[in-house]
Design goal:
Layout: H1 21-73, H2 92-96, H3 103-108, H4 118-127, E1 146-147, E2 149-152, H5 157-162, E3 167-172, E4 175-181, E5 187-188
Antiparallel strand pairs: 1-5, 2-4, 3-4
Length: about 200
């Protein structure tokens, strides 16, 4: 018959001084795991707060650009529901370019051609991406040609807001316009049909 040492005397459970080594090691491992989970959750929470702050900043910049457009033109830029835009209509985002200090892009945009004409496609490709102002910090789009902000008809604002989407209503004089964040959108930033 094998002579086994009692569990208390086992090398796994006691170190040289007689303390429970394996138990302490396991407790240390659990403490490290809990600390790691807590640290990761705090980092993710801070990343979310930073993205929320960026989003508020972008809404503020869009608000200012739209108000400046209204002052310069007497109205907000036109926007179209899907499929309603005339052939050479420009996106409200393209119309805002001079008001977000991107005159360089606006000067190259062929306004007399369709948004997806060869000349305007070359411009979009040469930029490599939509201006950052038109992209949500929460978006996971692979293509950066997409815009995550859309103009929403005022009657749809409560419905869109209740769906958990960030919405801001901008008023200038008697005119009102609403912008909503639509992360992971597939609307090209130059497309007037996407709203």
């Amino acid at each position: 018959m094998l002579n086994r040492a009692p569990l208390e005397r086992s090398v796994l459970w006691r170190n040289r001084r007689g303390g429970p080594a394996l138990v302490l090691l396991l407790l240390f491992g659990v403490a490290v795991a809990i600390g790691g989970v807590w640290l990761v959750s705090r980092i993710r929470a801070q990343q979310y707060v930073a993205k929320e702050s960026q989003l508020r900043g972008r809404f503020g910049q869009l608000r200012l650009a739209l108000e400046n457009y209204h002052v310069a033109h007497g109205n907000f830029p036109p926007y179209f529901a899907k499929g309603e835009a005339p052939a050479t209509a420009q996106s409200w985002r393209v119309a805002l370019l001079p008001h977000i200090e991107r005159d360089d892009i606006r000067a190259q945009y062929a306004a007399s051609e369709a948004w997806d004409s060869p000349a305007n496609r070359r411009l979009a490709d040469s930029l490599g991406m939509a201006p950052a102002l038109f992209r949500s910090p929460f978006s996971r789009n692979e293509s950066s040609h997409f815009s995550d902000f859309v103009i929403v008809p005022l009657q749809r604002v409560p419905q869109v807001a209740n769906a958990g989407t960030h919405v801001t209503v901008i008023e200038s004089g008697n005119d009102k316009i609403a912008i909503a964040e639509q992360p992971n959108s597939t609307i090209h930033w130059m497309d007037p049909n996407g709203n």
